[in-house]
Amino acid sequence: MPSQHTDPIAEQRAAISESERRLWAGGFNEAELEPYQAAWQALEALYAARNSDDRHAFVVVIPVADRPRHLETCLDSLQELCRLYGYGGQRDGRFAKVEVFIADDSLDEASMAAHRELAGRYDAAGLTTRYFGLEAQQSVLDVLGPEKRAALAPMLGDIRAPLTGHKGASVTRNLAFLRLSMLYAGRDKVLFHAIDSDQEFKVKVATRAGDRDVYAVSYFHALDEIFSQTDALMLTGKVVGDPPVSPAVMAGNFMDDVIAFLQRSAERGGQAPCGHHEDGARREGEAAYHDMADLFGFGPGEAAYRYRCPLSGAHDEAAGFDHFAGRLNAFFHGEHPTRVSFYQYADALGSVQPARTVYTGNYVFRPEGLKWFIPFAALRLRMAGPSLGRIVRAEVSGRFVQANLPMLHRRTVEDTAESECRPRVLADETQIDLCGEFGRQFHGDVVLFTLERLAKGHFPCRSQVAVSEAIDSVYASMLDQYAAKHAAIIDKLATLKALLDAPGNWWNQAQTPPAGLADFKRFSANIEHNFGSGTSCFARIAQNGMNGRNALVKAIHCYPDDRQAWEAALVAGRGRAA
Questions:
Q1: Looking at the domain assignment, is residue 108 inside a domain?
Q2: Rounded distance between C-alpha atoms, residue 309 and residue 423, angstroms
Q3: CB 483 within 8 A of CB 423
Q4: Cα(167)–Cα(152) distance, integer angstroms
Q5: Assuming Cys at both sites, which of 129, 293, 327, 382 could form a disulfide with 100, CB separation 3.0 to 4.6 Å?
Q6: How do beta strands 353-354 and 234-236 pair?
Q7: What does residue 365 show for φ and ψ, rounded to 5 degrees?
Q8: How far apart are CA 253 and CA 485, in angstroms?
Q9: How many helices (H) and strands (E) does the chain have?
Q10: What tens digit of pLDDT does each residue of 22-74 get?
Q11: Shortest CA distance to 339 belongs to which of 294, 284, 285, 302?
């Protein structure tokens, strides 16, 4: 006979643990997914019956710039996650513990209108959604007054009225954080979940039947448990699917994969059965997409990864060739078709460990965490998250953690294989120019590794001499790293062009050349434009070195002043409903 003191919620949590074990036993077992989701819904029914729920509420913060299709997909996934797992239940037809805050950095009026319409649509459907557009952003600045606004320039850039779009994701996040500090001042048990508009609340899993994107993680339940059972102040997850880095630092290893694909295809012949479906197709390892993964402490991978052809049914090598060719251009928009990240199950609470990098598209923090803005936002550099992570780690150590809670990342829109919007990347029908990305990536790397070096002593550092010396050392080292990668890519480009042009290869012998050959040659031309011996992308880094270097020294040296200005702005805005 069961004890009269049995806790139904504890019993249901035990049932969920058993369901989770079955879901992942030996891999992903799709037949167990619906029962797993139903087990969480049963837990929520118990909370509703008890009429008492002191778990955390969540505010999902989404910066977006001219990406209505991405944003709609993102919001769809959030709404579906809430429906399938039911975290917090519903009250009067609204999800009780999940809200959305959309910070719009669009330049196009039509995009702004679309984003506002989406906010209204999902709010009407029960997902409480706030739209934070340019007018509301300006109101936040007006509340602070001109003196405090001027002091915030390193965090917000050029903030003269009227505000415009494309200020950058880091600036937009900082503006959002200022507004959140006003809206949620003094509120207990709330967590802010910062994500990107091109992400979804799913994970990518590999199965024998192909890759699947599934709602197999109850993010809010897991996060509530972690923040309830630990003293974590900030937690970062990662992403699966497309890499979180720029194509500027992925070209070398992708060239290895493309060359290997062409060599295998040439050996098989165009009429042979497609040879890119082996069950042993490679799986992406930690940071395997990054040309300089060793700088981040990750070991080198093997030379080439295989492309896993997704076509079904009987088809020949030529069909696989054409399909892969059709994805090549997506690389310049941020995909890595051969080194895709997959979810590997581990219990979320059990996976908690100290972190060093913030993934700005997937991190969660208590209201106290609003004291950390995205650093050096006005410089509009890449690597803002890793830089923030080094700062947070230096200040709170064990309260900055990571957990196995990745989100699905899709850099491109399926029907175009292109990003919906990438400011500062120039593209037309035939050519994509990544030179702006190179500069942002290079100087972002310099800042990151300078912070890492300074943090070994004491950061923030008040000595401009110490900052200058650290910058100069890292700058020289990074120039050498980039030059070595550039030289390697030039050699690989010569190999690629020779393969494409070799008269003995089947694609050059066919009476009608395969459709994909033009895509391969377009890819080769874009690699040459951005990475070849005649490119200006690498040259600009060295040419602009002194100006870039001086701006970085100033930004790092002045960081303590920026923190004071930020904290003053939080105090001034606290409780104000601008």
A1: yes
A2: 31
A3: no
A4: 14
A5: 129
A6: unpaired
A7: -150, 155
A8: 10
A9: 19, 17
A10: 999 999 999 999 999 999 999 999 999 998 899 999 999 999 999 999 999 99
A11: 284
Please indicate, yes or no, if residue 322 is contained in any of the structural domains. no
Residue 238 has pLDDT above 90, yes or no: yes
- Please check whether residue 283 is in contact with residue 342, taking contact to mean a CB–CB distance below 8 angstroms: yes
Of 15-19, 77-81, 418-422, the range with the lowest mean pLDDT is 418-422
Q: What is the CA radius of gyration of the chain?
A: 25
Asked whether residue 12 falls in the same domain as residue 137, the answer is no
For 74, 135, 179, the CA distances from 575, given in Å and listed in that order, are: 30, 19, 10
Inter-residue contact 289 to 253 (CB < 8 Å):
yes
Identify whether residues 59 and 128 lie together within a single domain. yes
Residue that has been written with the tokens 């192909």 in this structure:
210
State the amino acid at position 396 in one-letter form. Answer: V
CATH code for position 373: 3.90.550.10
Q: Do 406 and 374 sit in the same domain of this protein? A: yes
Show Cβ contacts of residue 181 under 8 Å, excluding neighbours closer than 6 positions. 367, 370, 570, 573, 574
Euclidean distance between CA atoms 161 and 138, whole angstroms: 7
> Taking the CA of residue 400 as centre, how many other CA atoms within 13 Å lie in the half-sphere pointing to its CB?
18
pLDDT at position 286 is 62
pLDDT tens digit sequence for 188-214? 899 999 999 999 999 999 887 788 999
Structural domain contains residue 510 = no
To the nearest whole number, what is the mean pLDDT of the chain?
Answer: 90
CA distance 190 to 224: 10
3-state secondary structure of 451: helix
In a domain, 529, yes or no: no
Q: CA separation (Å) from 556 to 55, 149, 389, 532?
A: 39, 20, 15, 33
Model confidence pLDDT, tens digit, residues 502-534: 999 999 998 899 999 999 999 999 999 999 988
Shared domain check, 143 and 174 = yes
Does one domain contain both 100 and 30? Answer: no
pLDDT tens, residue by residue, 410-439:
998 877 777 777 666 655 566 888 888 888
pLDDT tens-digit map of 257-273: 999 999 999 999 999 99
Q: Which pLDDT band, with edges at 50, 70 and 90, does 350 fall under? A: very high
Cα 395 to Cα 459: distance, rounded to the nearest angstrom? 9
For residue 281, the model assigns a pLDDT of 43
Confidence class of residue 326 from pLDDT cuts 50, 70 and 90? very high
| Backbone phi, psi, residue 540, to 5° | -65, -30
Per DSSP (E only), the strands in 366-483 are 400-402, 407-409, 426-427, 432-433
Nearest to 232 by CA among 26, 36, 436, 56: 56
The number of folded domains in the chain is 2
* 87 and 18 in a common domain: no
